[in-house]
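User: Hello, can you help with two protein structures?

Assistant: Certainly.
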Amino acid sequence: MVPVGLLLRLAVLAVLVVFIARPELFGGLLAPLNSDDKPAIYNQGSLLGLTVEHLELVLAATVCSTVVAILLAVLVTRPSGREFLPLSRSLVNIGQTFPPVAVLALAVPAIGFGWQPTFIALFLYGLLPIFENTMTGLTTLPPAVMEAARGMGLTDRQRLFRVELPLALPIILAGIRLTAVIGLATATIGSTVAARTLGEVIIAGLISDNLAFIVQGGLIVAVLAVLLSDALSALERVLAKRVGRIAAQGN
C-alpha cells in the first residue's frame, strides 16, 4: 500500500507541474489577490522557462559546490593534508561571511550582469554545509568497519572509495540537501542582476504592486524547496539504514 504522505507529495508535485505549464488555469484562484484589473497570472515571460532556468542555475552551483567541498574535506582528513584544515575552513567560510547580496555587488563590476554573479554567490554559499558534513562523515566512521577494511589489505584509495565515502554518504547528502534548498530560495535574488530566475516574477509583483505575481513566484520556489528537501531526506534515511546494517555486520 502506498503511504499517504507519498501520495500527498505526488499530488502536490502534479499540481505544481500543471501550474507552471498552464498557469492560466489558476487565474480564478489568484484574481482575488488583486483589488483592481491587474493581471492575476504573470504575463511578462514564461513561468515554465523561468522555473527551468532557475533549477538549472541551482543545480550547476550545487554540483560545483559539492565537488569542491568534498575534495577539500577528503584532503584535510588525510594525514598528508591535515595541515591545510584551517586554510580550507577559511575558504569555505567565505560564502557565509559575505552574504549573497554582497557577493553579487562585488561580482557584477568584475564580470558583468547575468547568471554568472548569481552562480558565484550560490557556489560560495553552498560550500560550508557540504564541507562540514563531509568532514563529520569521514571522521566518525565505525572503527570496527575501518579495521576490517585495513585487515582485508585495502589501500588508502580503495578504503576511501569503497568504504569511507559510501559510509559517509548519508551525512554528506544532508549537507547537499541543505545547500540545494538554500540555493533554491537564494537564487531569486539573481534577478536583481539580470539572471533569469523566478525572482523575476516576485520583483515584477513588487514593482507593480501585484500581490498575485509575488505569491506565484514565492509559492513555486517554496513548494520546490519542500519537495526537494523531502526527496533528499527520504534518500538519506534509506542510505542511513544501509550504513547501519554495514556497521552492525562490522561489529
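That covers the first. Now for the second protein you mentioned:
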Amino acid sequence: MDEVIYAIGDVHGRDDLLRDLHEHIRDYHLLMHSGRDAELIHVGDYIDGGAHSREVIDRLMSGLDGFQMTCLLGNHEAMLLECLATDNRQTWYTWLSNGGEETLASFGMSLRFGGYDPDELHASVGEDRVAWLKSLPLYKAVEPYLFVHAGIAPGVPIDQQQSKDMLWIRSRFLDSEEEHGYVVVHGHTPGDEPVVKANRICIDTGATSNGLLTAAVLDGNAAPVFLRAAGRPGKSG
C-alpha cells in the first residue's frame, strides 16, 4: 500500500467535527507524509442524530483538496434511501426514531399531519444528493484492510456477504477472533476510544454521544495512528 489512508468514523450530522477533523488530517499529512498520495475513506453514517446532516453530505460531496475520497454506505443512509422508496409507516418510523427527525429538520422538511411522503423527501434532499447517496458502495478493500460500515459475517467470502450484515452486524462480528483475510476497519458500534484487535479496528467514537470524531491513519502494516476532533456532546456541537 503506497498511499496513506485516513479512515473516518461515523459523523452523524456533526459537521463541526467533520470540518475540524478534515483540517487536522490536512495539516498532519503535510507534516508527516508530504508528497505521498492520500485517501480519505469514510465508513458511513453521515446523517441522523446531529443537527447538520445536510451540511455533512455537502462537505463530503465537495471532497477535500489534495485527497482522494471514498464514502461508504452506512445503515442510516440505507434507512433514508428506504424512505425515499415508500410511504410505509413502519419504515419511516424506524428511520425517524433513529435520528431521522434531525435529518429532516436539516433539510427544512416537517412531517405535516403525520404524512410520510417519499416525493417530498426526495424534493427536500435534492436530486444531486439523492444520486450521491444511491452511489455509495458497501465496502472497499485496500490490502491489508477492508473498509465497511458495520463489519462482515465471519467465514463468508467478501463477494458473498449480505448487505444487511455489512450495514447492521454487531455481536457475531465483534466477538469473533477469526482471521477475515483482511483487517476490517469499521464503525457502527460507538465507544469511548478506538478499538484495535488483530482482525478489526473500530473507529466509531460517538460523534453525538461523546463529541468525538476519530480518524485512523493507516500506512501499510504500520500500527495505526489516531487523529480526532473533539467538541461538546450533543446534536450540534
